[in-house]
Design a protein that fits this description.
The chain is an alpha/beta fold and about 270 residues long. Helix content is about 25%, strand content about 15%. It is built from seven helices and seven strands; from the N terminus they run αββαβαββαββααα. Strands 1-3-2-4-7-5-6 form a seven-stranded mixed sheet, with helices on both faces. β2 (about 45-50), α2 and β3 form a beta-alpha-beta unit. The longest helix has 23 residues, at about 220-240. The model is unreliable at about 255-270 (pLDDT under 50).
Length: about 270
């Protein structure tokens, strides 16, 4: 069975949460009871829409980029920046591919609300490299998404750290530029997406099994995480200096738009 939306997956009678799949998220508490200048909105959400056994290694990367060690979730470093995160994980011993829902079909309420309340989002994905563009052994990361600034920072940082980072343009849905892609459903309407090849993810863990991955992360894993966090820090620093505009620039009111739409629709009696 193929699921076009997360809601279809959740409603399937033969698929059970906690047995076939799981969802994890963290929304950090924020409040301000002072009368001094208030900080603005949450800056960034980290996503792993195909974690667990669907695209192995992306759950661990999501947690680490968000600022938590994947083994037991302590903050790393202890006083470091942490980000909100969301993931869906395949829990099956096999056939986790059947749980895959494309990113444009992600309608999970928590994922949507986290992205909709953040300026930025970064999604971690996995793919299998194939000829003619790549060999099956290539350790490659494709950088996509609608946020071209963040894309540039990620490509720059990954290349400096000796990763084979390539722009995802021309790689179909791996480009991550669809407006309905969950990573682009932010306050600014854009995010960034990282597609890591299977060989690259394999190299990030000494033991690449579900139970052992989180305990056997390699230096390559943490170098990759550091690059991602540096790129996000760079982007967020710019957003503090020059705050992005969030004004609605559409003309007309909802009522006017609704009246105009209804005037061209047939009445219920005539249908």
């Amino acid at each position: 069975m193929t699921f076009n939306f997360n809601s279809e997956l959740y409603a399937a009678p033969n698929v059970v949460e906690g047995v076939d799949y799981a969802r994890r998220h963290r929304r950090h508490e924020r409040f301000d009871d002072t009368q001094a200048r208030t900080d603005d909105v949450p800056k960034t959400t980290i996503l792993a829409p195909h974690g667990g056994g669907i695209e192995p290694g992306t759950s661990e990367l999501c947690l680490a980029v968000a600022g938590y060690h994947p083994a037991n979730l302590p903050q790393i470093p202890p006083a470091g920046v942490t980000y909100d995160y969301w993931m869906l994980e395949g829990l099956r011993d096999r056939d986790n591919a059947g749980l895959h829902v494309t990113s444009i079909g992600c309608d999970d309420g928590v994922a949507v609300s986290l992205c909709a309340g953040s300026l930025n989002a970064l999604a971690l994905h996995g793919f299998r490299p194939e000829p003619p563009d790549m060999s099956e052994t290539d350790q490659v990361v494709l950088v996509g998404g609608c946020n071209t600034t963040l894309r540039g920072y990620l490509v720059e940082g990954l290349c400096i750290a000796d990763f084979d980072a390539r722009d995802a343009g021309g790689h179909g849905e791996l480009d991550g530029t669809a407006k309905c892609n969950i990573v682009n459903r932010t306050l600014l309407g854009m995010g960034a997406q990282l597609e890591l090849s299977t060989p690259l993810r394999d190299a990030m863990f000494a033991e690449h099994s579900r139970s052992r991955r989180k305990h056997t992360t390699t230096e390559l894993f943490w170098t990759f995480v550091a690059v991602c966090r540096d790129a996000l820090d760079r982007l967020e620093a710019e957003q503090i200096v020059a705050r992005p505009g969030l004004r609605c620039l559409e003309s007309g009111t909802c009522l006017e738009a609704d009246v105009g739409r209804r005037s061209h629709e047939p009445s219920r009696e005539s249908v």
